[in-house]
């Protein structure tokens, strides 16, 4: 996120755009077929631009990557970028435009669940194919969407389990703070069910929601402080999305909430969001994802080098949703090669069972429920804006998109 | 210097009896292990009270302690590194920093607290006492008692006594415990209450005494909580006041419905950003970036306002609907222009150090510095507006034109010029609001849209054309909003406030301070 290194970012973005425009000129000769069109549906303005702009660049990078490998099926790839401007109904309109006007073969897009819910009927009606790269609340399974981010059992539940463990500080009271829309509300409903099953009663759970772009956090942070001073170890679980995180963390720092006393684990804050915040007062606060830029290993080194070379800025960071796009894009390429066509009806079955050594250092697999198997990582925010892993699962965890902690899912589980 | 201390420590080490030497050295290998091993080692080092542990633990806290793959520990020494056990210069090849997690940080805080209790620096002793208060254990009692006996500075001693009470609460001595409960009750802090609630379940026999202490604290906390809510309300109110003051001039005095007002606020915030970037090159200017941004933002937005008035609005006087639509369009153009010039992404405006952190007022009321400054700034701007309207020639002419344009013109006032100046003045005030908002909100092209409705609300609620009304309206809305927030939530509280204003406007269409007399009728 651009806010810290303001000089760089715009230039970098322009450079990135320039590079993508220049790309076709240096490409090897392609076959006769029309280009394969890749839709990019990410907000480039509004409250979510802080998170989604880098994802647009990631998809453009992957298109360039595929073209440098000679394209797919002998055809060149071409990106079609639209800006839904953090406006949820506009997401549906732009999705329709991508599918009907531009006739894209595949789309990568959306960050917030509300935007995904907005485009889902469009993709189902027009038989499109969407890759959704962000961790989310589950409770969904569309034949036209592949979910390459984490399901609740791959992020939210392990993170809270960690907070309750000895290493995480043995939290006995939990504050659930979120932005007011479907993802935080559903995730917190699942977490409440989970916490109740672990013996943490509703009296020890504080739940609060704020609108998108909320900036006046003083009252809420003061109340959290008070809630934490009831004689039990307290932790914050944050599902705050978008640029509201900047004033939120600023207020945490100003009111002196230290990670040793009240750790805060965030589900939607990665390296890209932290790049705009002075992280020194935040050292020790946590983030739960399935990939960190600090992950060791060759696949990640290659991924980071590819990104920084593409964006022409050795200081730019990578994050989890970017890794999810990388993984999803590569799997889609493998599936297209296997199906020998880009037709959605043929690519969808070919995607199931695709495997890839992902930058997170594990081999991920596309499961029949359209979700991935992924490792779970808990990391601590460092003074330099990076996140260091402090806990991780031994292997990959299979996604459960229908959470057992939501009572209505009991019948579904039996089927 | 550290090198010298380390050498002396080494010499001492050789002279020390073998047992103590073993205990210190024996605690070290754990530091190269997993998080729980590190935490255990830190606890042991803190309990030993060995002075050699202090530089070691400080290095660990600052992330400067390194470990080699074969388990040796390296301390920074001068420009190089030295082996923590032998003190010999060592090679850093392959070594990596020992990482921390929150459990280790907690252990470190306690251990460093114990070791720093004898520090010559009173600030460190105070910090040590606070650290022990948080991480208290029964073993701290004798340490603290000794430290209290030595302590000369009353403020530090008070902290130590509080820490002693906290430690005694977990120690076995029953009589000391009763005493500690009473002292913690008198301390009246949130932290003390947390300790007491925790101790209540562990000591059923003392429950009655603990309840009395908790009740004492509760009473104090209630007052403090009210003071803090009031502060938060005033803070929100001052933000609303700043955002609305410009509108109080353009809408309140001139009657122009300027929907681009929010965008002028946004321009002010971007002007702050630009000033900050310009100052970045010269190091002595950096702390002055924000004060410098105040006149810069005022001038930029005032110029934009004058341009808008002369170019467009003056052709539309007396046609409020067209003015509304046109200024709305101008607002969108400004947003898009900023988006093109600065990018759609947020820009970060840094807070100077004097605006960071919390200030604790007497009585334990904690207020955040940035909000406090914004309250002062809001009041200063209000005073400036009042002075400009009441005490200057420009203010006199402005009032004359508003009261009766024709007669003012016959007296030789150039009404067109006064209109432009008034509108520029109101727009400049919006720019000042932008400077303040850059400190608490995200500087993005959409910044203004979040404040335009609130600004109109304040002006209409307070009474159109009344500065006092704007002040009272802004502060009332801020305080009521913050009082509702704890039980209604941030979203609902705002809804309630809106409903209340609608009902109020039904009863009193002219707001709190309705203008009376001829001015009101025109």
Core attributes:
heterodimer, A: 415 residues, alpha/beta, Rossmann fold, 2 domains, 13 helices, 17% strand, globular, disordered N terminus, B: mainly alpha, 5-stranded antiparallel β-sheet, 21 helices, 70% helix, amino-acid transport (chain B), transmembrane transporter activity (chain B), signal (chain B)
CATH fold field value of the largest domain in chain A: Rossmann fold
CATH architecture assignment of the largest domain in chain A? 3-Layer(aba) Sandwich
Based on secondary structure, the structural category of chain B is mainly alpha
Strand content bin of chain B: under 5%
Characterize the quaternary organization of these chains. Answer: heterodimer
Order of helices and strands of chain A: HEHEHEHEEHEHEHEHEHEHHHEEEEEEH
- How many helix segments of chain B? 21
The percent range for helix content of chain A is 25-40%
For the secondary structure, the number of strands of chain A is 16
CATH class membership of the largest domain in chain A? Alpha Beta
Gyration radius of chain A, rounded: 21 Å
Which outline of chain B best applies? elongated
Major sheet characteristics of chain A: 7 strands, mixed
User: How many separate helices of chain A?
Assistant: 13
Biggest pleated sheet of chain B = 5 strands, antiparallel
Radius of gyration of chain B equals: 31 Å
Q: Which chains share the greatest interface? A: A-B, 60 and 60 residues
CATH superfamily of the largest domain in chain A: Response regulator
Percent helix among the residues of chain B? over 70%
Runs of chain B in which pLDDT lies below 50 for 5 or more consecutive residues are none
Pfam families (chain B): BPD_transp_2 (PF02653)
GO cellular component, one term (chain B): plasma membrane
Main location (chain B): membrane
GO molecular function (chain B): transmembrane transporter activity
């Amino acid at each position: 996120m651009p806010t810290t290194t303001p000089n760089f970012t715009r230039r970098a973005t322009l450079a990135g755009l320039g590079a993508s425009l220049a790309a076709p000129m240096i490409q090897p000769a392609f076959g006769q077929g029309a280009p394969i069109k890749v839709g990019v549906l990410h907000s480039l303005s509004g409250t979510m631009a802080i998170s989604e702009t880098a994802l647009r660049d990631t998809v453009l990078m992957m298109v360039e990557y595929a073209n440098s490998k000679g394209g797919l099926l002998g055809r060149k790839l071409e990106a079609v970028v639209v800006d839904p401007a953090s406006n949820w109904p506009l997401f549906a309109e732009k999705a329709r435009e991508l599918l009907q006007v531009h006739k894209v073969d595949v789309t990568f897009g959306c960050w917030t669940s509300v935007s995904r819910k907005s485009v889902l009927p469009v993709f189902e009606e027009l038989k499109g194919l969407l890759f959704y790269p962000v961790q989310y609340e589950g409770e969904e399974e569309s034949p036209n969407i592949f979910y390459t981010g984490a399901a609740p059992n791959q992020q939210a539940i392990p993170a809270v389990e960690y907070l309750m463990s000895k290493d995480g500080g043995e939290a006995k009271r939990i504050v659930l703070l979120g932005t007011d829309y479907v993802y935080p509300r559903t995730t917190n409903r699942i977490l409440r069910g989970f916490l109740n099953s672990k013996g943490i009663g509703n009296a020890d759970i504080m739940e609060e929601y704020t609108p998108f772009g909320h900036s006046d956090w003083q009252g809420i942070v003061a109340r959290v402080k008070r809630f934490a001073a009831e004689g039990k170890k307290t932790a914050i679980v944050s599902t705050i999305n978008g640029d509201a995180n900047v004033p939120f963390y600023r207020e945490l720092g100003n009111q002196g909430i230290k990670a040793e006393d009240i750790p805060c684990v965030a589900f939607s804050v990665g390296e890209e969001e932290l790049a705009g915040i002075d992280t020194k007062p935040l050292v020790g606060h946590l983030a739960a994802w399935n990939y960190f830029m600090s992950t060791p290993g060759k696949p990640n080194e290659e991924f980071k080098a590819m990104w920084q070379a593409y964006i022409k800025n050795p200081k730019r960071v990578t994050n989890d949703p970017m890794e999810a796009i990388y993984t999803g894009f590569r799997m889609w390429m493998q599936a297209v090669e296997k199906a020998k066509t880009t037709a959605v009806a043929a690519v969808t079955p070919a995607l199931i069972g695709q495997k890839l050594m992902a930058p997170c250092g594990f081999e991920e697999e596309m499961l029949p429920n359209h979700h991935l198997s992924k490792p779970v990582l808990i990391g601590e925010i460092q003074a330099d804006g990076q996140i260091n892993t402090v806990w991780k699962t031994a292997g990959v965890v299979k996604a459960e998109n229908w959470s057992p902690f939501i009572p209505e899912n009991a019948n579904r589980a039996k089927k | 210097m550290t090198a010298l201390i380390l050498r002396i420590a080494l010499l001492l080490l050789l002279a020390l009896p073998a047992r103590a030497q073993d205990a210190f050295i024996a605690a070290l290998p754990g530091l190269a292990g997993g998080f729980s091993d590190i935490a255990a080692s830190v606890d042991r080092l803190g309990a030993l009270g060995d002075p050699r542990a202090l530089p070691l633990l400080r290095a660990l806290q600052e992330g400067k302690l390194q470990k080699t793959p074969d388990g040796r520990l390296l301390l920074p020494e001068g420009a190089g590194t030295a082996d923590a056990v032998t003190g010999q210069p060592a090679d850093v090849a392959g070594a990596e920093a020992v990482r921390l997690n929150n459990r280790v940080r907690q252990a470190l805080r306690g251990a460093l607290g114990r070791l720093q209790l004898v520090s010559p620096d009173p600030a460190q002793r105070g910090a040590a006492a606070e650290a022990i208060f948080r991480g208290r254990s029964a073993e701290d009692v004798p340490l603290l008692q000794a430290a209290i006996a030595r302590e000369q500075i009353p403020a530090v001693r008070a902290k130590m006594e509080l820490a002693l009470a906290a430690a005694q609460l977990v120690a076995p001595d029953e009589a000391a415990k009763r005493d500690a409960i009473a002292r913690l009750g008198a301390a009246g802090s949130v932290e003390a209450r947390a300790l007491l609630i925790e101790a209540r379940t562990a000591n059923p026999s003392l429950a009655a005494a603990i309840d009395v202490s908790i009740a004492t604290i509760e009473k104090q906390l209630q007052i403090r909580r009210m003071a803090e809510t009031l502060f938060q309300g005033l803070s929100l109110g001052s933000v609303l006041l700043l955002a609305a003051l410009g509108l109080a001039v353009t809408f309140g005095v001139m009657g122009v419905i300027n929907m681009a007002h929010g965008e002028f606020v946004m321009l002010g915030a971007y002007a702050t950003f630009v000033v900050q970037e310009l100052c970045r090159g010269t190091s002595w200017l950096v702390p002055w970036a924000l004060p410098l941004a105040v006149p810069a933002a005022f001038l930029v937005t005032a110029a934009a306002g004058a341009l808008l008035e002369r170019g467009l609005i003056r052709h539309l006087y007396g046609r409020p609907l067209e003015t509304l639509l046109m200024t709305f369009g101008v607002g969108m153009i400004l947003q898009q222009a900023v988006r093109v010039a600065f990018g759609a992404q947020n820009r970060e405006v840094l807070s100077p150090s004097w605006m960071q952190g919390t200030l604790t007022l007497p009585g334990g009321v904690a207020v955040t510095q940035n909000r406090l400054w914004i309250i002062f700034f809001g009041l200063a701007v209000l005073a400036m507006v009042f002075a400009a309207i009441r005490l200057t020639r420009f203010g006199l002419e402005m009032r004359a034109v508003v009261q009766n344009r024709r007669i003012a013109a016959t007296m030789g006032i150039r009404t067109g010029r006064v209109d432009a100046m008034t509108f520029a003045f109101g727009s400049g005030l919006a720019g000042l609001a932008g400077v303040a908002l850059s400190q608490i909100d995200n500087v993005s092209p959409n910044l203004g849209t979040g404040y335009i409705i609130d600004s109109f609300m304040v002006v209409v609620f307070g009474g159109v054309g009344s500065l006092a009304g704007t002040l009272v309206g802004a502060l009332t809305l801020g305080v009521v909003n913050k009082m509702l927030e704890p039980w209604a939530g941030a979203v609902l509280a705002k809804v309630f406030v809106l409903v209340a204003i609608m009902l109020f406007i039904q009863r009193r269409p002219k707001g709190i301070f309705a203008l009376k007399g001829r001015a009101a009728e025109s």
